[in-house]
Amino acid sequence: MKVKQLFFALLFSALGLSTLQAQNAETLRLSLSESQQYAVQHNYSLQNASLDVQKAEAAKWQTLSSMLPQVSSSFDYSNMLGYEMSFMNGISIPLNPYGTFAMTASVALSASQIMGTLMNDISVKMSDINQRQSELTTRTGVKSVYTSILVMEEVVSLLDSTLGNMLTLQEATRKSVQAGAVESIELDKLSVQVATLRNSITSNRRALKMLYSSLILQLGADGNTQLVLTTPLEQVMNVDEAARLTMGGFNMQDNYNYQLLEENEKLSQMQVTNAWLQFTPTVTAFYQYNAKTYFGREEGMNMTPPQMVGASINLPIFQSGSRLAAIRQAKISQQENANTKQQTEDALQVQFNQDCYNLISAIESYQIQKENLSVTKRVLDNISNKYRIGYASNLEVTNASTDFITAQSNYVQAVMEVVTAQIALENLLGKDK
After folding, report:
1. S-S: 36 plus which of 10, 20, 139, 425, CB 3.0-4.6 Å?
2. Quick count: other Cβ atoms within 10 Å of Cβ 143?
3. Per-residue b/e over 79-99, b at no fewer than 16 CB within 10 Å?
4. Residue 16 lies in a domain
5. Could you tell me which residues are beta bridge partners of residue 101?
6. Element (DSSP H or E) covering residue 229
7. What 8-state DSSP symbol labels residue 391?
8. Is 2 part of any domain?
């Protein structure tokens, strides 16, 4: 008995917690553009990309600070514990406790340090390009899932409407079987079609739930968030705007991968220059201040100069050819980067042509499948109406229902092909329409 009470207590507690979580769940009503902006602000991958830019900036200032004056200070205390220095003539000098304070300011400057700062500028630019590329990828990813949800909701709505009609036909057929006007096999066939429609609806609803979860994850929102999408499918699936992407030409400078290659080429050129700069001298200058204080009754002997300045030039002469090998290695890397850039230019142009072809073909297929879905829906409605009054057979209803389910599957696939092709072209062009 106690076990049952404990079970029901836990059950009611769980139900109460679920209800409380549902009540506290945030509801977001988002258009497509608002969803993309929300993801840009909250997506964890984008936050990491922003942190990478900050890390590159910090590395730049770390290199720059090495060329600025460096100041250090020290203090030490010594006590000989009463020891006295004795001389042959009987004179002794007590070695009193003393403390020394020293401050040193120094600066070291070399050509390779300056070049390192310029190379860090390139790293900052590359991190910024990566961030903008991640932002574009996030925006297009949100668009893909957002569109998938809208398509799936439209399909589920159509299937629900069709199921309602089929249930009406099933009930009418059942009455006809009871009256002896129709054989029971007709009802069995119709029941199979109803079950098939129910299964299709259930499958699509599960997929729809997973898509909502995927969109919440991409947005960076709380897992309990409820989403309401406000942009209609017709506005998202603007095929005319998508087709215009193929007419504007391809400016390779807008492609983020190409921008990274350009910056990488500049970096390799600087690395060659930096390798040559290893032959240049390093100039160092310093200023030192010292203050020595005795703590005994008698002032001790102080041979420490209070101030001192100095400068030096370090000129590398011979390192067994290691610097020449480094120069050769940097030149080879520069040539490799130049070859990669040229190959990428050719590949990007081919990819642009292919992506344009894919998008145009996908739009044509989408228009056909959209019309086919509308036609098969009208055919199914027409056959259903004829079946009610006895002018159509059960086989015709079955075939029309099967054609409609196939058409909705083809329609979903055609929509996603358009979205996929459009996103691929937008990523290539470096823009999100």
Report:
1. 139
2. 22
3. eeeeeeeeeeeeeeeebbebe
4. no
5. 75, 291
6. strand 226-229
7. S
8. no
Q: How many domains does the chain have?
A: 1
Does 15 map to a domain?
no
- Rounded to whole angstroms, what are the CA distances from 240 to 107, 247, 348, 428? 63, 11, 24, 19
β-strand 307-314 against 84-86: which pairing, if any? unpaired
Residue 4 lies in a domain: no
One-letter amino acid of 71? V
pLDDT, residue 4, reads 47
The predicted model scores a pTM of: 0.71
The pLDDT of residue 25: 60
For the chain, what's the residue count? 433
Report how far apart, in Å, the C-alpha atoms of 422 and of each of 168, 288, 371, 387 are.
41, 67, 21, 43
Q: Identity (one letter) of the amino acid at 376?
A: T
Q: State the 10-residue block means of pLDDT for the chain, 433 residues long.
A: 45 46 69 89 77 79 80 88 76 80 87 82 86 87 90 86 82 81 78 86 91 90 87 85 85 89 88 85 89 72 80 81 83 88 90 92 93 90 82 79 85 88 88 66
**Domain with 93 in it:** 24-429
CATH of the domain at 366: 1.20.1600.10
